[in-house]
Amino acid sequence: MTKVKTLVLPVKGKPAKSEAEETTVSVGNGGEWHQTATGSQPALTTNQGLPISDNQNSLRANPKGPTLLEDFILREKITHFDHERIPERIVHARGTGVHGFFELTQSLEKYTTAKVLTEVGVQTPLFTRFSTVAGGSGSSDTPRDVRGFAVKFYTKEGNWDLVGNNIPVFFIQDAIKFPDLVHAVKMEPDRGFPQAGTAHDTFWDFISLTPEAMHMVMWIMSDRTLPRSLRMIEGFGVHSFRLLNAAGESTFVKFHWRPKLGLQATIWDETVKIAGADPDFHRRDMFEAISAGDFPEWEFSVQLFTQEEADAFPFDHLDATKLIPEELVPLQVIGRMVLNRWPNNFFAETEQVAFCPSHVVPGIDFSNDPLLQGRLFSYLDTQLSRLGSPNFNQIPINAPKCPFANQQRDGQMQMAQPTGRVAYEPNTLAADSPREQAKTGFRSVAIDESGTKARIRAESFADHYSQARQFYISLTTYEQAHLASALVFELSKLEHPHIRVAMLGHLRHIEESLAQRVASGLGIDDLPQAPPAAVAVQNLDPSPALQLIGNMKDMLEGRVIGVLIADGSDATSIDAVKKAVAAAGAKLKFVAAKIGDAKLTNGSLLKVDGQLAGTPSVMFDAVAIILSDETATLLAKEATAIDFVRDAFGHLKAIGVDKGGEALLKTAGIEQDAGVITIGNLDSFIAAAKTRQWDREASVRELA
Ligand code: HDE
């Protein structure tokens, strides 16, 4: 065995050692490397604490002989590895979690006793997990899908889980339909595909037979399901909940999260390309924002209303396929959420976090929404199978941060060691054992229930099309075109034409012109009969609050601008862009055909952040092309450079150009429009970069 000297590798949590500090590395007979502890690092041990002398070789009968069963170190290591995975979530398997806090700015004392909603200024720690719904845990971040928005508040009175989505309504009205919905959307059971997508027969077959889903269908076919960033989505508790005050009076409430950065969506073609360019696009975006100290923030709002007000709504608020338009019940901002700490360990926290809508605190209660009622059962049940034990509440990410105590005992993976002989209540033997809290404990709202037991749906749930129509007519014309095209895309993928026809029938109830657009996009000349509607479709007023474009903010904070450069790019222009982009609060990344440094006109070296082939323009919100005439000619022969500008143009992004940039655009066959701006005109470029060039769209693609 030869002894050689080498530098110590940096150990997590410790700074890299100075060059002078060395450790001994041995080269074994087979030529492999061993790193020997010097005393400053912790010893590598088995799970029983036994120090391990050799982590590279298993125990063999002889150097070329069989491995011995006796090797308990090998067996322990491999066995643990074999059991590393737990079942992924049935839905919402792919998620990104972040720690943060909630701060109340306006007390709801009049309505609730919940401390988290009454103690102004108090910061309540929380953990938020964003997710896609249909895809597996290893699927890409950007399919067309609903985003889960689940928040666990660690309040002084126990954990409160607000397990919502980025869409305020849901597909179905009754929990009993959920397994069918999920089976229909997930990959088809005989073939194991498609992964993470709705554009397949089983999904649309089920939907076409489920008129109550039509409102949600409008939302999922809109650009809401193509978020630019998880920092730029809204969150909704969806169901009506109840608040309960000290006098025992109850008020209905809906919860809303609104991102400070406004809403942003990507263009469908861009979304598809992002999935290839960076399947972790959203997770990475969140990770980078948190690492850079750009902590995303949301306003927390409530819609409050009484039973009497609810009775006057033109829909039933207990029906999760309906929303309460803001014009009817305005939003009141009562607090904010800031996400500011990435988890230490993905599995321990993001994977093991267990949300349950049944986790509420005193002063918050449930409504009779039948979907919510079913959820109250499902989540606890699924955690038992996913985390393997009723003691999942002891996993640090799930444990309340306030004291908790009861007489539940034992079970697999019990970590606590309750003492004493008393494990029941009431008792006289342990004066200090936990007792009921008659005054401050959780109480259900006292409601009179009467009627006939039956499997039945309330008549007030029968209107399936009015709010779907309201959503569609509230959108801007650009969004309507995207929605129609999304329907054409999805329905065009079906093998069974009768499902397409059935969907067109539903669309006729929503808006005749939408049905016609989609039919024409699908090459269908004659519209089918609309199916019978249980009740007449109401012509509800448009609600601008439902728009996505209307909720975008013309700002650059939180966004990224990509600049295509090369050796010989103009130093003065680049310097000016750097300053202007920094002043606007955006990030700037330089892309070039070669990674390393680019030598600018003044001889200075500029670090390149991304190589062209791996950093397409879909990664950016706006781009600039700053090239010398010579490099513009060279890049004209580079397909990735042409794609860079063509995609930026096609995805309606502002493009800043110098003369070289203009030349590249010309080679790419792009006719300049108002969104292509001379880089010397920096203010105009920055202004244009804050939004998409919606008017350009008609010139780059035919939308349904
Ligand atoms: Fe879920 N849902 N869901 N869901 N849901 C789950 O729980 C379920 C529904 C939502 O980041 C599961 O722990 C039923 C509506 C989010 O860990 C499961 C019904 C809304 C998450 C489950 C619904 C949601 C889940 C799968 C109809 C928006 C991810 C794994 C009655 C308000 C939470 C798990 C996380 C996860 C059941 C409908 C949101 C199986 C039965 C409506 C954000 O328990």
UniProtKB/TrEMBL annotation:
SUPFAM superfamilies per UniProt: Class I glutamine amidotransferase-like (SSF52317), Heme-dependent catalase-like (SSF56634)
Biased composition (Polar residues): 35-60
Keyword Transferase set for record: no
Top enzyme category: oxidoreductase
Entry-linked InterPro entries: Catalase (IPR018028), Catalase_AS (IPR024708), Catalase_clade2 (IPR024712), Catalase_clade2_helical (IPR043156), Catalase_core (IPR011614), Catalase_haem_BS (IPR002226), Catalase_immune_responsive (IPR010582), Catalase_large_C (IPR041399)
Reactions catalysed according to its record: 2 H2O2 = O2 + 2 H2O
Binding of heme, residues: 89, 129, 178, 375, 379, 386
GO BP terms: hydrogen peroxide catabolic process; response to oxidative stress
EC number: 1.11.1.6
PROSITE patterns the record matches: CATALASE_1, CATALASE_2, CATALASE_3
Residues of the active site: 92, 165
CDD domains: GATase1_catalase
A cellular-component GO term for this protein: cytosol
Region (Disordered): 9-63
An annotated Gene Ontology molecular function: heme binding
Pfam families in the record: Catalase (PF00199), Catalase-rel (PF06628), Catalase_C (PF18011)
Alphabetized UniProt keyword annotations: Heme, Hydrogen peroxide, Iron, Metal-binding, Oxidoreductase, Peroxidase
Family: Belongs to the catalase family. HPII subfamily.
Function, as annotated: Decomposes hydrogen peroxide into water and oxygen; serves to protect cells from the toxic effects of hydrogen peroxide.
Xref: PANTHER family: CATALASE (PTHR42821), CATALASE-B (PTHR42821:SF1)
Protein name: Catalase
Highest classification ranks of the organism: Bacteria, Pseudomonadati, Pseudomonadota, Gammaproteobacteria, Methylococcales
